[in-house]
Amino acid sequence: MPWIQIKLDTSSDHAEELEDLLLETGASAVTLQDGEDQPLYEPELGSTPLWHQTVVVGLFDAHTEMDTVVTYLKETYQRQPFPTYKIEIVEDKDWEREWMTHFEPMQFGSRLWVCPSWKEVPDPDAVNLMLDPGLAFGTGTHPTTALCLKWLEAQDMERKKVIDYGCGSGILAIAALLLGANQLTGVDLDPQALEATIDNSQRNNIAPEKLKVFLPDQAPEETADTVIANILAGPLVQLAPVLTKYLQPGGRIALSGILSEQKESIVNTYSEWFDLNPVVHSEDWILVSGTRK
Q1: Per-residue pLDDT for 45 more than 50?
Q2: CA torsion angle 180 185 190 191 (round to 10)
Q3: CATH T-level fold of 3-92
Q4: pLDDT, tens digit, 9 for 90 and up, residues 89-120
Q5: What does the longest C-alpha to C-alpha distance in the chain come to?
Q6: Contact residues for 148 (Cβ-Cβ < 8 A; gap 6+)
Q7: Are strands 285-292 and 280-282 parallel, antiparallel or unpaired?
Q8: Which CATH superfamily is domain 102-292 in?
Q9: Of 81, 124, 148, 199, which is most buried with the most CB atoms under 10 A?
């Protein structure tokens, strides 16, 4: 069935109040959107910043009397003037299937393909990673993931032990195993990410003993030949001693999730322990890699 949504233009100070009111009126879902294309890169730990100009969107069943909803909002809202708003009919779609139609096989380097699990592989003789990302981040479409996949494809991964810190959907972990690594440790803050990593590894016929996943506080103290971390610049700086400790001299590291303007902080931090390679760029993002001194 179709849905009706109301969009209210407000500020970050008033967005949560409007969100609560929409839920009180029976909204099936409420989302907050950027009202003026303002980037939010790395919030402080424990904070949930909003855009200065925020659009609060309430989604309602198509049979909802929106005049009644608007009347209630205007009578209950504590501030004046009432925000400008727009009411729209939203076409009913199977949004998961809609997304699936736009996820196509992608090639990284000369031999690695990432393929949606519901589509035919373009090259049966290639290294084909079959992916169904589910709720966890990481399909290969984002520049940071693509940078990491290209880096992995160019390495000698045969019989290597690898740690993927911030494993998400498991795409980098599984790529490393398919490219020849024989042991992989995946670490992530999100239990759903760990679940997605296991599900995708099973989809790719990875032997269970080759891939182990952990929350950060449960990760074993061990060393590896390679560490890859596609997260954000702030956590990468904070985690530098932890990630370095995983590697013996000669071990390799690859770091992404870094904006170009954040290059200096990452390079300055990791150059203490690593001989760094030239930084690789893709759009506004970079990959920093190197060898443990």
Answers
A1: no
A2: 100
A3: Alpha-Beta Plaits (3.30.70)
A4: 776 555 445 445 567 788 888 889 888 777 78
A5: 68
A6: 172, 228, 230, 254, 256, 287
A7: antiparallel
A8: Vaccinia Virus protein VP39 (3.40.50.150)
A9: 148
